[in-house]
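Running this now, will post back.
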Amino acid sequence: VKGDLLRSFLEGEGDIDSAAAQLGIAPRSPTVVVALKLASNDPVEEEFYRERLIDLVAMYSDAFRLRISWVAMGNTAYGLMPVQDPGNRSRVMKVVTRIHDHAHSTLDVDVLASVSSTVTDIREIASARREAERILRVLSSNGFGKEVASIEDVQTPVTLLILQDALARNPDLV
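Update: finished.
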């Protein structure tokens, strides 16, 4: 049930207020969306490691009392991470880098990790998830050279992706 609630919350569907209350998320608590994705083009390998990845990051988060709620959506693991000090992004990045490094070394596969902007309204969570997905797309592109990034690290390429997607949906804009 918790996974279904978290999934609908991240997709921006259903009763957001009710889902937040059931998940123990305050309506105005600063939060980031963390996304972890296996850097593989092999669907069989992704399927095999996806559940191991979600179990691993959930166990790691619990062991260090990080209060991150995780769910798998497609081939990506998403986590809602409460942020105690919204101005201290370096702490968030250190935590996510540790989670990434642990997943990479334990599973012995390449993993990409992204961190969205900090949102302070639960209705912005779905938008933060889409931002985290765009960051993963940038990290997945050939030659980017990083495995962990926040929106601050890749703002320009993410903006270009948004424009590229808009042009693909509306060819008359060209």
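The two ends are 45 Å apart (CA to CA). More later if anyone needs it.
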